[in-house]
Amino acid sequence: MGAEVHEGVSDGGADVTDVNREGVHRLVDREFLSLERELTLLLRRARASSGEMARQVHPDLEPAAYGLLVCLDDSGPQRATDLAAFIGVGKATMSRQLRALEELGLVAREPDPADGRAWLVRLTEEGGRRFREVRTGRREQYVRKLSGWDRAEVAELARLLHQLNESPES
Q1: Which residues neighbour 26 within 8 Å (Cβ) at sequence distance 6 or greater?
Q2: Residue 34 CB: number of other CB atoms within 10 A?
């Protein structure tokens, strides 16, 4: 049975799209379709940008590992399990990424003073220098790209993105 799609149907004043697939009705607000489109584009560009920034830190750095450097620079030394939870990956993936970062000389492990059985991961001096150099360049790009924006708009965008990132997944 094919899908029937009716654009622009009104539901109490809201523009909606009515999709009927085998008797199942879903109403999707136009705003949510627009949000999906814009987030998809943003995430696609962010992935490409992360790859570029990772290569600037070190030519052999995996793009996915760039987020670990962000977390370590922002929060200081962390346990691998905390990093895995923050990034949203499993222990095996985190171990592999940290091992690669150690081999590149960007991070080091040290005993956790609060628990002698655990280890903390921290940026090395070289890793911190390289990362902050790239991050500063990235921030300068944001300033140029958003130069026509009011500072309050930039702050509101940051607030809304933070709110989205802090929302529990369902």
Answers
A1: 18, 19
A2: 10
Tokens of 122: 């921290």
State the pLDDT at residue 12: 46
Q: Report the candidate in 36, 81, 67 with the shortest Cα–Cα distance to residue 135.
A: 67
Predicted confidence at residue 32, as pLDDT, reads: 87
pLDDT digits (tens, 9 = 90+) for 95-123: 999 999 999 999 999 999 988 888 999 99
Radius of gyration of the chain (CA): 21
The model's pTM is 0.72
Dihedrals phi, psi of 83, to nearest 5 degrees: -65, -45
Calculate ∠ Cα 38-168-16, nearest 5°.
45
Backbone angles phi and psi of 53, in degrees to 5? -65, -40
Q: Which of 57, 71, 36 is nearest to 126 (CA)?
A: 57
Query: Do the Cβ atoms of 109 and 120 come closer than 8 Å?
Result: yes
| Residue 15 pLDDT > 80 | no
Give the pLDDT band of residue 27 (cuts 50, 70, 90).
low
In three-state secondary structure terms, 163 is helix
Q: Is the distance from CB of 121 to CB of 77 less than 8 angstroms?
A: yes
